[in-house]
Design brief:
This protein is 39% helix and 19% strand. It is built from 12 helices and 9 strands. Helix 9 packs antiparallel against helix 10 and helix 10 packs across helix 12.
C-alpha cells in the first residue's frame, strides 16, 4: 500500500452524532491521498458502531479505541499510529473544507509545517487574516508579532511532530495545544496558507466550552503553558503577566508544577506576589 500523504487524525469521545458529517466532508475531497485515523478516547455511546458503518472504498479509515485519558493522550497515540507523511488534527465536530486536501498538497513543503485558516459555517474566519508579504513564521509569532490571534489549522511533518508529544500529568485530562506548538517552533517554522481548511461548529460539551473549568482542573498543564510563554513574550508586560500566571498555576499544581530554567529567573522570582494575586482573582471572579 502506498504511503498516504496526510494522516487526518480525529480524537473522538462520544461523538457518534458528529462523525458522519466529518466523514462526508472527507468523502467529498477530490484528492484522496490521505488516511483517516480515529482515536476513540473511551466513548460510551455508539461511536464504534458508527465508524464500522463508514465505507473504506474511497480512502483508508482506521479506528483505535483506548481508555479515556483526554484529547492530548489520544493525540500522542495517533502520532504513534500515523502512516501519513504529514499530520493534521481535525476535531470530531469539524468538517474538512471542500478541496482542502488538494490545497494542502499544493502548499506542503519538506521540513516545514503549515498554518491555514479555520472558518465557522457562516464563512467567518476564526483567526485574523495573515499579513501580506509574510510567507513563513514561528507559531509563537502569529499572535505576539503578526497580530494573528484566533484559531488556525496546523499541519506538521509526522516525523517532526513525533518529537514533541503532549506532556501528561497524573490526574489531569487536558493540556493546551499551544504547549506543543511552542516546542515545535524549535524544529520547523510554519508556512502560512491563506485558505480555509477546516469548518468548525463548536459543541456545548466540547473542550472549548468551559475554559475556566479546564484551567481549574488542569493546573499543571497551564503552569507549563505559562512557563513557556515567559521566554516567548513580545514585551515586558506580556512577560510579567506570563510569569505571574506561571507562579499562580504552579501554586495550584503543587508537586506537579514545572520548574522554570529560562533567561528570566530573577523576574519570575519577583513575580511570586503577583502569582498570589492571580490566584485570588481566579478564586473570586473565575470560580476556581
Amino acid at each position: 500500500m502506498n504511503q498516504p500523504l496526510i494522516t487526518v487524525f480525529t480524537p473522538a469521545y462520544n461523538r457518534a452524532r458528529t462523525l458522519p458529517g466529518l466523514y462526508e466532508s472527507l468523502r467529498q475531497q477530490s484528492d484522496r491521498s490521505f488516511e483517516w485515523l480515529i482515536v476513540d478516547d473511551g466513548s460510551t455511546d455508539d461511536t464504534e458502531k458508527t465508524v464500522e458503518n463508514f465505507s473504506r472504498d474511497a480512502f483508508a479509515v482506521r479506528y483505535v479505541k483506548k481508555e479515556n485519558g483526554g484529547k492530548h493522550t489520544a493525540y500522542n497515540l495517533a502520532l504513534q499510529k500515523a502512516r501519513g507523511m504529514y499530520f493534521l488534527c481535525v476535531d470530531s465536530d469539524d468538517l474538512l473544507a471542500p478541496g482542502a486536501i488538494a490545497a494542502l498538497r499544493r502548499a506542503l513543503q519538506p521540513e516545514l509545517g503549515l498554518c491555514a485558516y479555520k472558518a465557522a459555517k457562516d464563512g467567518r474566519l476564526l483567526g485574523a487574516a495573515f499579513p501580506e508579504g509574510v510567507a513563513c513564521a514561528a507559531t509563537s509569532d502569529l499572535s505576539a508579532r503578526l497580530g494573528c490571534g484566533g484559531e488556525y489549522a496546523f499541519v506538521y511533518p509526522t516525523q517532526i511532530a513525533r518529537r514533541i508529544p503532549f506532556p501528561v500529568f497524573a490526574g489531569e485530562r487536558f493540556v493546551t495545544e499551544r504547549v506543543v506548538y511552542d516546542r515545535l517552533d524549535h524544529y520547523c517554522a510554519v508556512k502560512l496558507l491563506p485558505e480555509v481548511v477546516a469548518i468548525c461548529e463548536y459543541q456545548p460539551d466540547g473542550y472549548s466550552a468551559d475554559t475556566d473549568k479546564l484551567m481549574r482542573e488542569n493546573p499543571a498543564g497551564y503552569c507549563l503553558y505559562f512557563m513557556q510563554r515567559i521566554d516567548r513574550a513580545a514585551g515586558l508586560a506580556q512577560r510579567v503577566a506570563a510569569a505571574g500566571k506561571y507562579r499562580c498555576f504552579g501554586r495550584m499544581a503543587g508537586p506537579r508544577r514545572s520548574a522554570y530554567h529560562g533567561a528570566h529567573r530573577v523576574l519570575v522570582g519577583l513575580c511570586a506576589p503577583l502569582g498570589v494575586l492571580f490566584q485570588i482573582y481566579y478564586r473570586l471572579f473565575r470560580n476556581f
